[in-house]
Design brief:
With 352 residues, the chain is of the alpha+beta class. The chain folds into 2 domains: 2-39 and 257-345; 72-209, no CATH class. Helix content is 40%, strand content 25%. It contains 5 helices and 16 strands. Strand 5 (85-103) and strand 6 (109-118) form a beta hairpin.
């Protein structure tokens, strides 16, 4: 009975992972294609102008500007204050118990508990051994603070643009605090860093200083720069440093391409694991026959790999169907032909 439940459980979980992989792959491609459309739109429509003057002719149009962002605001949390800051960030870690599970050969589960630094709260109420407990919350949580008025030449930046500035500088010389000890650029809330107690925290700070150089593609709206409304969605493109329009869009395309390849890998891995969990239990039944078993298992492994590549290619190509049909259609045809020909030859295991 237990083996039967394990058999069905494996197939069910595999089916869920298999279906999720299609969603991950398709949404990933859709997002990537949309980013390319945004880049093409910006390339055709962005007007290169100066941040030191406001031209009425550019009102409500997409503009490209370079310059320095500045703020006269002091950003403060309950611990430190930073003058002339565009943004202030607090990152935290807490010393906690972590439960580790190990499956023994006799199918029993062994539990181990270790002390670790983690930026995430570990819920000890779900531990097998209730004697290991973590605090129910972090006294000092992560925090992002942004200036309300950030200038950029003659313009002011919208909240969306400010939050997309990626020019953090770590605060290495933290101001003195009578509440905490300072170690290697962070505050420590406990008594002894070399022997921390459960619940002790590390607090690290970074900020975006006034005067940071930026390149921005956004809509000019009066004396403000804000998100551009387009049929591809609202967007702004913000890059650190001084870059011309061509270099900005090249960087934007490359960044999105790199993210897309990461999620392609995740989607294909989910599909491979899902297919493996659905097919291998069937192959293991054949594995009870000595010689036939090895052949069946090899065929199952080959099946999952080829099906993953074929179905993954079809799903990825579907996301490109209306943007680059000359690429998408041949890939879809090749993927379908591969699956049909393999199934016709019956050289691999393919679920009906």
């Amino acid at each position: 009975m237990a083996r039967g439940n394990s058999f069905l459980g494996s197939i069910f979980i595999g089916l869920i992972l298999f279906l999720v992989s299609f969603f991950v792959l398709f949404i990933n491609e859709y997002t990537y294609v949309n980013s390319l459309k945004i880049a093409d739109f910006a390339e055709k429509n962005a007007i290169v102008t100066s941040s030191n003057s406001i031209s009425p002719a550019n009102e409500n149009k997409l503009v490209h500007l370079t310059g320095q962002a500045y703020s006269q605001e002091t950003l403060t949390d309950s611990i430190i204050s930073i003058p002339n800051a565009i943004a202030l960030f607090r990152d935290t870690e807490m010393y906690q118990w972590k439960e580790l599970k190990k499956q023994n050969d006799d199918n029993s589960t062994q539990y181990e508990y270790r002390k670790v630094w983690s930026k995430f709260l570990i819920n000890s109420s779900e531990f097998q051994n209730k004697s290991y407990t973590n605090p129910p919350n972090m006294k000092y949580e992560e925090l992002d603070l942004y200036a309300q008025n950030v200038g950029f030449g003659k313009f002011y930046l919208s909240e969306n643009i400010i939050e997309n500035i990626n020019s953090r500088s770590k605060i290495l010389q933290l101001p003195y605090s009578n509440k905490f000890k300072i170690y290697n650029g962070f505050y420590f809330t406990g008594m002894n860093y070399d022997n921390p107690a459960i619940g002790d925290q590390k607090l690290a700070y970074s900020f975006i200083p006034s005067g940071v150089k930026l390149s921005i593609i956004a809509k000019q709206s009066g004396n403000r720069l804000e998100s551009m409304n387009s049929k591809y969605g609202n967007f702004t493109i913000v890059s650190s440093g001084t870059k011309n329009l061509k270099d900005m869009l090249t960087e934007y395309r490359n960044d999105n391409s790199n993210k897309t390849w990461i999620f392609r890998g995740i989607g294909l891995l989910l599909m491979l694991i899902g297919l493996n969990m659905m097919i291998m239990p069937v192959a293991n039944i054949g594995g009870m026959i000595p010689v036939l078993g090895q052949i069946t298992k090899f065929a199952a492994v080959l099946s999952t790999f080829i099906l993953t590549i074929s179905l993954g290619t079809i799903t990825i190509a579907a996301g490109w169907l209306f943007f680059r049909p000359e690429i998408a259609i041949p890939l879809i045809i090749v993927g379908i032909f591969t699956i049909l020909s393999l199934k016709k030859k019956k050289k691999i295991i393919i679920p009906e």
